Amino acid sequence: MSRALVLMYHLVDSPRSDMEHRFCTPPGDFAKQVAYLAESGYTPVSLAQLCDCMEGTTPMPDKPVHITFDDGFTCVLEHAAPILHRHRFPATMFALSDRLGGTNDWMTCRGFPERTILSVDGLRALEAAGFTIGSHTRTHARLTDLAEKDAEDEIMASRAKLEEQLGHAIDYFAYPFGAFNQTVRDIAARAGYRAACSTRSGFNRVGEDPYLLRRIDVFGTDRLWQFKQKLTFGTNDASLMYPLRYAARRILDRLGS
Fold first, then answer.
1. Is the distance from CB of 25 to CB of 9 less than 8 angstroms?
2. Residue-range definition of the domain harbouring residue 240
3. pLDDT in tens, 34-56
């Protein structure tokens, strides 16, 4: 099957508020999800391997999947990394170059609980556990709200700073809030990244734009059946009625063709 899934997480921890729950997957649930992937024939791939497949230089393996995390929360190192290492699943952490060792103040101002962000040493520990580090801008800015020169600074300077701090190339990027337009997408390409992740749901197929990679948003509130449904249909819309609606759309499409 010539399509790949990229999953998106933020926090792996016990949620500290109702507001946080959507973005915070309990460690027990995360362990069940990764175990399901491993037991159900999904092939773990790195972002580099995924890009090779999408470029057509390497065949797509069976049911390829990659796991990503946004923002750089310390709980990912504490709770998610050991689970992924146990099942030999690589992952990518999209970090904020100017927030390392700080807190999520872009969220606390909206009422979210305060959380700590990994330091440079924490990012190195993630790399030792099998993670790739990517950029998520300098400060978690909504890029589509910025002037072009400011968006360039967020996208390009974050890559340069992370490369200086970690001592190697940073090849991957994720748009904060999933916010992008053609200008922002083109800046990411000019900045030298190999690929960039959006928050649009769906599968990634051979020949598609590597700067608009699709990701499935795994909610902290997802039950295992919802997680499985998201994998099957490549969608964030997991509900008891979704398979019926999907089947109805397929039938109508066939009747209309």
1. yes
2. 3-256
3. 999 999 999 999 999 999 999 99
